[in-house]
Design a protein that fits this description.
The structure is a single chain. With 702 residues, the protein is an alpha+beta fold. It has 19 helices and 28 strands.
């Protein structure tokens, strides 16, 4: 159970806490100039690797890349160190590099950076459409003759009751989103309120911005108001993973003690509530509320029909047949807002790019599969946590109609409950990946489809990640554990869709081995059908190949895929790792990192430790595949590329108390933990910057 050092306190009415200003326009461009406080913080920051500099190359926030990367950070964080035998309760942000440097880097930094960045996007920044305008909220308001703000505040009260969370302690001035935009400027639009809210411990205090999010808005004028499936899908992935973690158990109301749970009816006991703790349960419930509205919005109007050349609703996913007419998620939809300065709604939507992009599709398939594992109400699935069953038993979330959870697809009906709407989205996307992006002749996924025909290029990174997403899909649809338990053994249901997913996984993995792995060089970045593999072998190509091959091994238990993944990892380490820089060459003798690449590196370290590292059965025992070596690489890479060697460098733009940077009355350094990541109000701009990832280039100092 995650432990919080303080409890959120607020005496402001709940409705007022949800209806907030959408942001202000900064007096100065937040991305220009360096404030005096920032200069001071930079000079006082500790340097980790004086042999390199890691300057920021761009400040534009990429929602898809960030949320994808932080999903991989999450899985490569506390769950990873716990799987290696560490009790997560011993991790403490105040005790830097304890119990070991790797434990702290993974279990505290990677994990907590991941969580806070999600909140930054879906609760604080305003980077999207406000939950008050969500379709589920609007439908309840229409049915009950209520105002939308009444409905939303009532929903939050109901959620607080379900998880045993005091209503008066909900964060103030939240900006919960139900759908997120593709890009924005992560600099704060105005001054962050760091004034004291409450006393903390050991000389620290709780700043106002940690309980009142009003000063954490981004500038709406600098947002790309575009809906891209990769962006709202990657955000969905973060939401689904954390919701699964937070709602995967019960807790006692009187002692806030985590309980695994025995039955879906445990919460009928007045002293037992949903969620692994009161605070985590509240956050988990809010995430599910956002997901529920997001899914209805996607299903009801973000699909595209090339036959009609128009946006449309998706029907029942179980009945969808792409051969009868494609209905898919297009690459870009622009949003025209209605001008509401507080909680703008979409006045109109326009398709800007109607192509189906593989990256978009797998970044929706993966989170929809994760959420399916939570919301699954099929009686034959015996692997659903009791607390998940309780979450969707009618209160606080509607259960699915009986027709939608039986074995008869013919009687499936349209419904708006979380399980049904997610199932519709999930099956549409799965069938479209198969029909639109899989080339049967070569046995691989192609990057794009224009609505009429496939393209002819295979991108190794996206093909590999499609394979991993299909692995999670197969587990979810066959009733196997997903989330943090996505590799655990269990009895599956053997569905038709699951069998097809396994076929696709094997064919794609075989293509990687047969066509992309080169005897004399690294795995090719891609493959043009009719021409062959590309000459380039960048870091991203290796990451995609390792993820795809490892996914195939986990899904099929065929050792040839593990052997191939081990080979690629060894090649990647030997040919791309720069020991002096403590980073990988990303391509063309340069070390340029974007969030997507960083997320892939974190993921590959995790699967290397868990699935590819040397065992007594391996004939070859390369040093690079010893767990000790992999954990050293993880720590070195994270320190150099993510945290960076100085306060104005590295991908992680800022941080606060979750990773040890506490606010203290007698310390104005804006870096109380003495590391190389500044506090949020001090980093990279006049008013500071959100705790998110920015692109960088690693350069050796001569």
């Amino acid at each position: 159970m995650k432990k919080k050092p303080w409890r959120v306190m607020s005496s402001v009415a709940l409705a007022a806490s949800l209806i907030v200003s959408s942001g202000c326009t900064p007096e100065n461009d937040a991305s220009s100039g360096t404030s005096d406080k920032e200069k001071k913080a930079q000079t006082e920051g500790a340097s980790r690797n004086s042999g390199v500099s890691v300057p920021v190359t761009d400040y534009k926030f990429d929602t898809a890349g960030n949320m994808f990367a932080y999903a991989e950070f999450e899985l490569s964080g506390e769950p990873l160190v716990e799987g290696l035998g560490l009790d997560p309760d011993v991790l403490d942000p105040k005790n830097v590099n304890a119990p070991t440097k790797f434990d702290y880097t993974a279990g505290v930094e990677a994990y907590e950076y991941s969580e806070e960045a999600m909140y930054e996007v879906v609760e604080k920044s305003g980077l999207g459409l406000h939950l008050i305008n969500g379709p589920a909220v609007e439908e309840i308001a229409k049915q009950n003759g209520q105002e939308k703000n009444e409905v939303l505040s009532g929903r939050f009260m109901k959620l607080a009751d379900a998880v045993g969370y005091p209503k008066e302690e909900i964060f103030r001035n939240m900006y919960p989103t139900f759908i997120e935009y593709s890009h924005g400027d992560p600099h704060y639009a105005g001054e962050v309120d760091t004034s004291q809210y409450a006393d903390g411990v050991d000389g620290a205090y709780v700043p106002e911005f940690q309980v009142n999010f009003k000063s954490l808005r981004w500038d709406r004028e600098k947002m790309d108001k575009v809906l891209t499936p990769a962006a709202y899908g990657a955000t969905f992935l973060k939401q689904a993973l954390w919701a699964g973690d937070f709602m995967g158990g019960y807790h006692t109301v009187d002692g806030d003690e985590e309980l695994a749970g025995e039955t879906p009816n445990d919460d009928q006991d007045k002293n037992i509530a949903l969620g692994v703790s009161s605070a985590d349960g509240m956050q988990g419930a809010i995430l599910v509320e956002e997901i529920w509205n997001k899914l209805n919005y996607i299903r009801n109007g973000l699909f595209y029909s090339p036959d009609k050349n128009a946006l449309t609703a998706a029907g029942a996913g179980s009945k969808y047949d792409p051969s009868n007419g494609l209905v898919y998620l297009p690459h870009q939809i622009s949003v025209s807002e209605n001008g509401d300065e507080q909680v703008p709604a979409a006045e109109s939507l326009e398709v800007k790019d109607s192509k189906s992009m593989l990256k978009d599709q797998w970044l929706v398939l993966w989170p929809a599969s994760e959420f399916y594992g939570m919301a699954d109400q099929r009686e034959e699935n015996k692997n659903v946590a009791p607390s998940f069953r309780a979450l969707f038993d009618g209160e606080p979330y509607a259960s699915a109609p009986a027709e939608n959870i039986d074995k008869d697809k013919a009687n499936d009906t349209e419904a708006t409950d979380p399980y049904s709407v997610n199932k519709d989205v999930l099956l549409h996307v799965f069938k479209n990946i198969d029909a639109m992006h899989f080339n049967d002749d070569v046995g691989s996924f192609v990057t794009e489809h224009n609505g009429k025909e496939q393209g002819n290029y295979v991108d190794t990174f996206n093909a590999g990640y499609t394979t991993e997403s299909l692995r999670i899909f197969q587990r979810a649809i066959d009733g196997l554990p997903v989330g943090y338990a996505n590799a655990e053994e269990a009895e599956g249901l053997g569905t038709e869709e699951g069998k097809r997913a396994l076929e696709l996984i094997k064919k794609q993995a075989d293509f990687i081995i047969d066509e992309l792995m080169q005897d004399s060089r690294l795995v090719a970045d891609g493959y043009t059908i009719g021409e062959g593999p590309s000459e380039e072998g960048s870091l991203k190509g290796q990451l995609g190949a390792i993820r795809g091959l490892t996914a195939a091994f986990l899904a099929t238990k065929d050792e040839k895929y593990r052997d191939a993944a081990r080979t690629v990892y060894q090649q990647m380490d030997e040919k791309l790792w720069d020991q002096d820089a403590k980073a990988y060459i990303t391509g063309k003798d340069e070390m340029k990192y974007d969030p997507e690449t960083a997320g892939g590196v974190a993921a590959v370290y995790r699967v290397a430790i868990n699935n590819l590292s040397n065992t007594s059965d391996d004939k070859e025992q390369p040093e690079v595949l010893e767990v000790k070596t992999i954990t050293e690489r993880y720590t070195d890479f994270f320190n150099t590329v993510i945290d960076g060697p100085a306060l104005d460098q590295g991908m992680q733009a800022s941080e606060f108390w979750d990773t040890g940077d506490f606010y203290k009355k007698d310390d104005d350094s804006a870096n109380t933990d003495g590391d190389t990541v500044p506090q949020v109000q001090a980093g990279h701009g006049e008013h500071g910057i959100s705790p998110i990832l920015v692109p960088v280039e690693v350069k050796k100092n001569n």
